Amino acid sequence: MTQTLLSVSQLRVHFPVRGGVMRRQTGAVRAVDGVSLEIAAGETLGLVGESGCGKSTLGKAVVRLLKPTSGSIHFGQTDITRQSQRALRPQRRDFQMIFQDPAESLDPRMSVRSILEEPFIIHGLGSRAERTQWVDDLLDRVGLPATAAERYSFEFSGGQRQRIGIARALALKPKLIVCDEPVSALDVSIQSQILNLLVELQQDFGLSYLFIAHDLSVVKHVSDRVAVMYLGKIVELAPAETIYRDPRHAYTQALLSAIPSPAPTAKRPKILLEGDVPSPIDPPAGSAFGHRMNHPCYSQSIGLDLALREIAPGHWVTADPCCLSAEDWEKLRPV
Amino acid sequence: MTGAPSNILEVDKLITSFETDRGMVRAVDQVSFAVPEGKTLGIVGESGCGKSVTAMSIVRLLPQPTGKILGGRVMFKGQDLVHASDAAMRKIRGGDIGVIFQEPMAALNPVHRIGRQVAEVFRLHKKISKKDAWDAATEMLQLVRIPAPEKRMLDYPHHLSGGMRQRIVIALALACRPSLVIADEPTTALDVTVQAQILDLMARLQSEMNMSMILITHDLGVIAETCDEVVVMYAGRVVERASAAELFAHPLHAYTRGLLHSIATLETPSKSILNTIPGMVASLADHTHGCRFCQRLGRAAADSRQRPGYAEVAPGHWVETCPLCYQP
User: Fold this and answer.
1) What is the CATH number of domain A4-332?
2) Which letter, b or e, does each residue of B64-73 get, where b requires 16 or more Cβ atoms within 10 Å of its Cβ?
3) CA distance A258 to chain B (A)
4) Residue B44 included in any domain
5) Residue B157 belongs to a domain
6) What is the CATH number of the domain that holds B278?
7) Mean pLDDT of A2-27
8) In terms of DSSP H, where are the helices of chain B?
9) How high is the mean pLDDT of chain B?
10) Looking at residue B290, what is its pLDDT?
């Protein structure tokens, strides 16, 4: 049995909505609304969903860049849900983040060397000579020339900048890296270079990834398991191969069918969804997806516990009458 | 002419340059292709390869005063758009050629109601009353399947979601029933489920109105699903063009092959090492001769004094004949 590295339980991240003259709180954006998941050591969990579904918020919350409203986050044996930022600092060595836009996450006034040296300095590691050596090693590891160290991030192309971002995340030899859309800003031919690098690094260092992306083909390529998120909740979670071969939730099925396939002969029928993702400010009382689809069973879903249930070994899906086949619903229906 | 459909647009050796601090930069370098009537031609390539500049050269919407068409012809229904007067171009744009832009929020005016913006197209291109223009605009919104169009007419762009905004931009482009639509990355800013809706809508409207289309995208999946003909561009040059079926079945140029093989699809085995194209997309500002793709790979053919020529290797299948990038 592999060891669980990150364990998130019933996590909620709500942002207050203020209105009126007194700026009182009038509501909340329920960006993440009751998410539970686990990531094992050396595993990649892919997280997909449309924009606004809360996947980036979830990613930031698990590394405590955002404050959870409720629920718990355990990293290894430690509960990091409520730790102060100061208490958390030594722990941060173990979990790092790679951002979508490396142009915005790298300081343009710092040379690449100072960007990569900073994590060591913050954590008081190494002598000056050692740090220089470590930075050179990092650059080499992510496929950048040693001369890159004395240059500035804006001198590099998007793909190279993302390599700098990856090197920074790797610096302290973390156990988990949250990758938030790491390749979506890159050109196709550069995407594959970065994906290969991430896969190699995982094999070399036994890293775990929480890999957030909206591109389902990319997510399938890198992930061991995939979680599909819709309006702040995970609606289906299964091994990558299974979820793509045998999606059970209507939303997963629609999402998969919408991917344009670069083979004109392999046209699949598309499931066209009506409308857009509803607002997380005032989510529907019952099944959010059933509501969007105007499903006849929607009223039935109000008041039901729409938690994830295991429909096959390792394959979890919400027990939602609007989104499952009649047969699956019979299996999961609460008695 | 019998049998073979005629071409609504023929672009012939188009050259577009920009004036920059580092001298003239050739963004479109001798580009030729043709759009058959009623069909969709896709232009695919990575960022900075000149696909958008090609499209904007056709409708002469280049940034002024830096962008200039230096050579070639753009024949649209027998008229050369390169040498058409500004007044004539104003009539053609939004009239007989509609343009759909990538970022709907940038294409719509944030301070005017949707209704006014759509009605304006009718007011400008057809001499009709305000009331008639308003009614025609409502009808357009209905055509692009916007629910409750009368209500949406009174909304501002920021009231609408990304997908709805893109529908409005499509309504603007199609208002005057153009015979050619140029869509520049129309779904890139959208989620995949919304992208599927919009592509489906565009395909339906295209066959209803019998329009021809140029679709610009970096997504080979979108090309495969929507296009009849494909032009692959790299660094301002067309490296290969063919029918979609032919191109995906028999890609010939090294760049096309590299692109096709480097994408992760649902069929690629998990965590396998993907093919990559070494190096990065060429900067157009580097004044060089020879084959641009060889330059990216650092190959000897890059030193040649001339750009490679073209050969038709199968009916309708053209490829740039760099000896290293294309081996018959």
Assistant:
1) 3.40.50.300
2) eeebebeebe
3) 6
4) yes
5) no
6) 3.40.50.300
7) 89
8) 51-58, 86-92, 104-107, 114-125, 130-143, 149-152, 162-174, 192-209, 220-226, 244-249, 254-262, 292-297
9) 90
10) 84
Let me know if residue B125 belongs to a domain.
no
Please give the distance of CA A126 from its chain centroid, rounded to a whole number.
Answer: 32
For residue B196, pLDDT beyond 50? yes
Domain spans in chain A, listed from the N-terminal domain onward: 4-332
Cβ of B306: how many Cβ atoms within 10 Å?
Answer: 8
What does the DSSP assignment read for B78-99? TEEGGG--HHHHHHHBTTTEEE
* Cβ atoms < 10 Å from Cβ of A20: 8
In the three-class reduction of DSSP (H, G, I as helix; E, B as strand; rest coil), residue B213 is classed as strand
- Residue A286's H or E segment, with its range, is none
Instruction: Walk across the sheet containing B40-44 and list its strands.
Output: B97-100, B180-184, B212-217, B40-44, B229-234, B237-243, B317-320, B310-314
A206: left (phi over 0), alpha (psi -120 to 50) or beta: left
C-alpha dihedral, B19 to B21 to B24 to B26, nearest 10°: -90
Of A9-23, B78-92, B244-258, least confident by mean pLDDT is A9-23
Contact B276 A241 (CB under 8 A): no
CA atoms of A202 and B260, how far apart (whole Å): 25
Domain-located, residue B143: no
Cis preceding-peptide flag for B65 (omega within 30 of 0): yes
Contact A220 B266 (CB under 8 A): yes
Domain that holds residue B44: 7-96+176-320
Q: Do A216 and B224 touch (CB under 8 A)?
A: no
For residue B282, report the phi and psi dihedrals to the nearest 5 degrees.
-65, 145
Please tell me the pTM assigned to this model: 0.88
Average pLDDT of chain A to the nearest whole number: 90
Instruction: With beta carbons less than 8 A apart as the criterion, state whether B319 and B326 touch.
Output: yes
Total domains in the fold of chain B: 1
The whole-angstrom separation of Cα A276 and Cα A256 is 16
Measured between CB atoms, does B223 come within 8 Å of chain A?
yes
CA atoms A59, A62, A67, A71: torsion sign: positive
State which residue of chain A sits closest to B269, comparing Cα positions: A221
Q: Is beta strand B180-184 parallel, antiparallel or unpaired with respect to B212-217?
A: parallel
Average pLDDT over residues B199-222: 93
| A218 touches B at CB < 8 Å | yes
Torsion from C-alpha of B255, B259, B262, B264, nearest 10 degrees: -170
Sign of the C-alpha dihedral, residues A19, A20, A24, A26?
negative
pLDDT digits (tens, 9 = 90+) for B162-194: 888 999 999 999 999 999 999 999 988 888 888
ipTM associated with this complex: 0.83
Q: Helix, strand or coil for residue B154?
A: coil
